[in-house]
Amino acid sequence: MVEKILLAVLVPLFAFLVGIFLEGFKRKMVARIQRRYGPPLIQPLLDIIKLLSKKDNISHGLMFDLGPVIALSGSILTVFFIPTPGFKLLSASGDLVALLYIMVIGSLGMALGAGESGNPNASIGIARALTLMLGYDLPFVIALSTVILKFDTTNLYEIVAAQSDLYWGAFLMPITAVVAFIATYGAMGEHPFEVVVAPQEVATGPMVEYGGKHLGFLMIDHAFHIYIELALFTDLFLGGASNLGYFFLKIFGLHILLTFFDTVYPRFRIENAVRFFWRWPTVFALIGLLIVMIGG
Amino acid sequence: MNLSILTLLLTPFVGGILAYLGGLIHRSVRFAFAFLFSLLTIVLVAGYYGSKIDSLIYGRLFGSLLVLQMNSLSWLLAIVISTIFLMSTLFSIPEMEETPHVNAYYFELFFLEGTMLGVVLAGDLLTFFVFWEMMSWVSYFLVIKGTKESSQAGYKYIIMSLVGADAALIGLTLVYLKTQSFVFVNISSMLSSQSPAFIISVFALFAINFLIKAAIMPLHTWLPDAYSEAPSPVSSILSGVLEKIGVYGLFFFVFVIFGMNLFKGIIPNVFGDSLIFVVLQWMAGLSILFGTFLAILQEDAKRILAYSTIAQVGYIVLGLSLNSTLGVAGGLLQLVNHAIFKSLLFFVVGGIIYRTGTKNLSELGGLIKKMPVSFISMLLGIIALAGIPPLNGFAPKWMIYQALIQKKSVLLLTIALIGGTGSFLYVYRLIHSIFLGTLPEKYDNVKEVPLLMQIPMIFLALLTIIFGLFPGIPLTAIAKVQEFIGMTPIRFTLTGFPQGSALSTLNIVKISGTLVGAFAFAFLLFVSLPKTRRVSQYDNYAAGQVVTKYTKYNYSFGFYSFFRDIMNPIFKLSADEIYTEFTKFMRVLGDHIRRVYTGGLETYVSYIVVIMAVIFAFVVLGGRIW
Amino acid sequence: MDKEIEQGYNEILESLRKRSLWILHYCTGCGAIELPPTMTSRYDMGRFGIVPFVTPRQSDILIVTGYVNIKTLRRIITSYEQMLDPKYVIGFGSCSINGGIYWDSHSVIKKLDSYMPVDLYIAGCMPRPEAIIHSFKHLMELIDTGKADGYRRYKENYDFYRKNQRKVLGKWR
After folding, report:
1. How far apart (Å, rounded) are the C-alpha atoms in residues B272 and B282?
2. Which end of chain A is more exposed for a tag (fewer CB within 10 A), N or C?
3. Which chains touch B (3 or more CB pairs under 8 A)?
4. Which of residues 124-153 of B touch A (CB under 8 A)?
5. What tens digit of pLDDT does each residue of C85-138 get?
6. C74 touches chain B (CB under 8 A)
7. Domains of chain C, first to last
8. How far apart are CA B368 and CA B376, in angstroms?
């Protein structure tokens, strides 16, 4: 029992620390690519401490307050359902299909909170976020279907177990893995898919009225979000890991790859972003699906 | 002789007459009768819980028995019907008070309930058809009691219904001529000796009727108009139960009357499935995809719900046509749960219209401060509609996805999942434009809806939570239905699905428990930090500009306009336009024929009568068609 | 004892907080042209945790870059009041100190300090990026010693500031 409670605390903590480290590392890495010195590694943590300790916080209503809270709790819930080495408490309570819907809970909370701020920039940001979601979901869902078809199960732990001994999803179905990586990349909202936040267009979109502890919560949520997206990809295509160290290394590698793209791209318009996802990634996802359907 | 089915069937009719007569005395008498009799119907239906087939032979016509019967499938439908009708009756009391002909409204409302019960309780084709036709007409009279445009919408509705009903009438006649019997139980055995072409044509004739009522693409065009222009309590009945009657009819005919054995030899198998099912699956898939995409672009609250009904009923048909244990159970569960959350949403929107007088989303906003009960009801409704755990929309969708994975129909799985994602877009639009955003100054004095409107909302909202956390409750009844239609009943626990019932296990209570724990942690962290200060909605970021009440600072018109740009090439194809062109052509034709016939509705009906007469003559004179 | 712990806690918090200061990306006069080099590779203020942010709700520092005419003053005050405590104002260039070359102008305010509490001035026309970086370092010191208390002064002397604002802006809200 004590062990279970300890795990229930440690797993989100691990996720948070990984997320916050990756965020700090990314800022340093982007700075180096741009030939800057860059902020210290713990800068995101300092930002969060600063935001949480603001002496004054504003609110536009109850949903505005609850928005970041639901976002964070949704993220923590999702972390529990993503296979992490050494953690199996909830493996029987949900599967990949359920996970797709569990991941939405947090976004819904944030959308409601941002909506209540009454700022049109926030509403536009949310409208863009949802439309973009429809965009990257199409190739992503096809890729997931391919994975399910390949391993013939929807249980995440069984999918991870089926990829032991270097029988990684990325080696068995390389095209699908690339497509899923692009979709994951879009889900993380990095350039060129940074249409939701887009500071120059919609003033950070959903976050426009958020400051102080609300924004601090959203930044914690963002750290979780980085972990969730990359860990899910790792579990589905990179074979999970046997211990936390390897798991972290795989996520770290993915994140470095992702940061290279993020640094050099400008930003799509929302229409172009959705059209992009519905064009080549979808076509290649279908090709990957066809290969698995024929090859078995 | 056991007359209890007859009592059950007659209760709503008696209620309607008494409510009408009571209304002539005083309106409180009318309310009392309306409430009592809708409650009585539920009680009578509930009394049948768990009982096996109960039937009653009540007459004899054309040498065939006329039968009423109650089985577990009709019980499921009947309990949903009577519950939604009770809620709708309560909601109607404030809503319809000021309208003219309010007595007639209750009369028709109860007759609609009676005829619907008649359809699901019918044990023979003739009873089925008579009640079906009455149902169409009574619902038409109810639809045209709505907004100014409702008469046009109702016209469209009744025309399409008539086309379907006449198709069914031809089918019924053909069956009778061949078998000399209307009774359901006899038909299957007697049809088995007929030629395959005959069976398929009869089935197709009935299927057209049912698909029109269930508004499956491309036969959906009557639905958005009728749903959005009808009075709100009627909309919730139409969407909550009337559409389900179409689905019920379709699958009652497929699984029970015709039976799978009949189709087996006749219809070729495609992708390991009977062709009928493949066609139905893809029609349902189309409904999901385009219903969702069209709902995203609507500017009118009730139209969003109407299009989303098309999509959600698509899930029902998809689940049922998968013809596997998990799929059929998922479809039936979606049938029950969709009735709950869609009626709830129609009630909330009805309440908004009642208080603000508009259903145009760009004129609303910020009502969360004024109508908290409505807001929470709608929040629960949209979470359920979007299929997000732990509310009741999640379990059926999960089951349907699992069934699709079991069948390895990956493309349909993709369509269904994309439909799920698309539903987030329109539900957010709905709640955002009504309840979030800036409150326009003209709604400063808007109050929460009256208590009688709140009761149905709260009751249905509670049901979404209970059925969401414990899908085992409705699944108990659904497993009985599966036994009745001769299928392996689904395995389930109170809170989810055990090992072996699907590809994976599910425990909704554990998911929601973890969510509550995470929420408690986040909430405690939130309140332990420095306090928040409430600011006015005009104290808002506008790049330094001062926002006042004269500034229109709200984003609600053309919410997904960029989505329209993306989808423009596809939306040029419109089923509605094909029908409109056809109508125009028929009008021109009618202008020429008008010398013989009088114009208007009768003209259209007359065509059908003539066609039927020709077929009749052909059958009677020639003796056989095939 | 409790008080000491609280004070210690606050000191630690302040020393952490000063390492993450976000600027409101809002530029008034010509001085804004000196900010891009300060942000980018050559001077890189990001290494002190100082980054530009978009909305006042998210930001800690308001830099008034250059002259402020009366129209702009209204926006600046609105933005300043929308920022969350603790918040700091940096007056940038000689225009914000005494009007600079706009001393004679009818539409430019001369002394920013009369309308909102300024924690720190950077003298010069224009101040170089080195000066800006130096001012940030100095602001951090002020935060450390508790001298950067403009937001408190604004609350205490609200009537004074409001009166001065009214004088030039009239009754504007």
Report:
1. 15
2. N
3. A, C
4. none
5. 888 998 888 888 888 888 888 888 888 888 888 988 888 888 888 988 999 889
6. yes
7. 2-165 (3.40.50.12280)
8. 9
